Description:
The protein has helices at 2-5, 12-23, 32-49, 66-70, 72-91, 100-114, 119-128, 136-161, 166-199, 214-239, 246-257; strands at 59-60, 63-64. It is an all-alpha fold.
Amino acid sequence: MIYSLKAGGKRIRPLLIFAVLDAFGRDPKIGLKPAAAIEMIHTYSLIHDDLPSMDNDDLRRGKPTNHKVFGEAAAILAGDALLTYAFELLAALDPEKASAETKLLLVKELAVSAGAEGMVGGQTADIEAEGKVLNLTELEYIHRNKTGKLLTCSVMMGALLADSDSETLELLRDFSRHIGLAFQIQDDILDIIGMQDKIGKPVGSDVGNQKNTYPALLTLDGAKEKLSEHIQLAKQSLAQTSLNIEMLLQLTDLIAVRDH
Length: 260
Ligand code: GRG
């Protein structure tokens, strides 16, 4: 569990919780345990995604994958335990940081986002799509769930901890949906650019088995345009709130220009 948690990673999901709390003028430290919880769920998903029965990857975050170091059985169990521990952390939140009602809302948000109607559902759709060529709607369904739901969950957990009103909550949900898709589009763009750097010349956007990606469906320029559309829409949603959105705007730009 510790090996994979400490293997690095951008910590985007925890950062989102802290930035939302900052936007409400609340102490980001209130979000420390929920931030650890969501990073545990994310890390479990990466450990399981790398397993031989899924992507069968040897490297993650620049280090040997969990099952390569500890064996498949230990990797499955490390993922299971991280998933369970996340909910233990939320349930044990200090009553001064979250009321019993807020804790229940946090648990529900995380469970729904990570489960069959969220990340696991997206991963299942992704596996079922193997060997098929998807249209944009089908591709977005996968990404909205597989990657997007945990990003939305981070934003929602920050807002719930800050006792947000329902109108602001919905604006933040819109914001998070746009940055979720932007995050995935940038990931696809970085894959293409990485390949071009490796072979030293431009590659077609559907090289290898990378057919179901934004550049493959929209071309590289089309994907970049879509990315910028989602970034603009995310910022518009933020601008409609009465929050101090400076840090959230910075994170939004970071998602659009990140290089890994
Ligand atoms: C196995 C239940 C289950 C789910 C796996 C998220 C996921 C679902 C699989 C990861 C595979 C993948 C590359 C998905 C695309 C989304 C993405 C870029 C995930 C990696 O998240 P980052 O970039 O990772 O935040 P770091 O390492 O920075 O934390």
